User: Fold this.
Amino acid sequence: MRRAIFSTIGTSLLTNQINRADYKEKNWYSQLRDTANLSKESIQQDHLEVLAIIQVLTNRALSSLKNSQISNIRASSAELNGIYGLYQEQVSQGIQDIHWLIATDTVQGKSTAEIVETFLKTQSLNNVNTYVVPGLTTVSTSSFTDGIDNLIHWMQTTIPVYKESNYKICFNLVGSFKSLQGYLNTIGMFYADEIIYIFEGKESELITIPRLPIAIDLTVIEPYKVQLALMDAGIELSINDTQGISEALIYVLDNAVTLSTWGKLIWGECKQDILTKELLQFPRLKYRDSFKTDYKAISQKHERVKLQETLIEVSCLLIKSNGMTNNLQSGGLQYTRYKNSHKIDHFRVDSSQRVSCESLGGELVLRYYGSHAHVEGKEL
Assistant:
């Protein structure tokens, strides 16, 4: 079976190239350590000498990997150690696999990932890509949390595509820093078919952790599905509006409540199931019986999900505009008034499906849903 392999990337491949016996390089490790969380722009501004060090170590690493035996390659890089272990040192076996290298949003993280990617492509692994997680650094708790949120969102959109194509999902967590490994280990229990580690030491063996049968208790989520959907779409709620929601799912700052990293993960896992069921009642939206009838007639689950996701988007825009419909006119909704109508409007769900509606007192009353012909036929 083909694999999609997601490898976290640390910086040991760079630091392992430092010649600590060389007097000129004795401070290189501490310089790299102290600038580990900096972007290229920050280093260019205040630490130009570090950029030069990274370039020297990058060239040294590429040369060393090119001319080394497998044992030395594995010893020089935790990430490569995991990949070589996965293939039992026959990396050419993975020519059909897809590799993603997960790097921090730092110059050192990007540089190390580029070394690993370049080297793997010389070893017959042509489908190797680097994903630099926007904002992911350990410079502060907020930066790290924002980066993890971006990583989860990327995985929620990337991994299902591979699963639909029957790829086996593998998380290679041998490299990277420990805080990221801890998060990825938990995330992997939802997304990965297997997680791999390596025992430390010479001739280390591969540790494979299979996916555990984790199931989300929907009874904990169901009562708060509207609030969770709104927060997932970027709406900040008050503490009063989120009473009863597990503290693990939310983040509170100055009385404004948003989804936590784990809340986004849990909601992402269960929202497809929830949005295929009953029509949810979102703020500033009202449903006529004719609209409810059209919703109940939808037989395809993906169509129900798409419609409810669109309703979430519309609700959020109306909340932000205090009920005004002006900001519904741009983007994919293409909110417009029917010709020859004094009050009936409509917006798009996708290229073929429409919702007719009427704006009344800061709320949008939804009238019909369906094909353009169905909706227009009912209204005109």
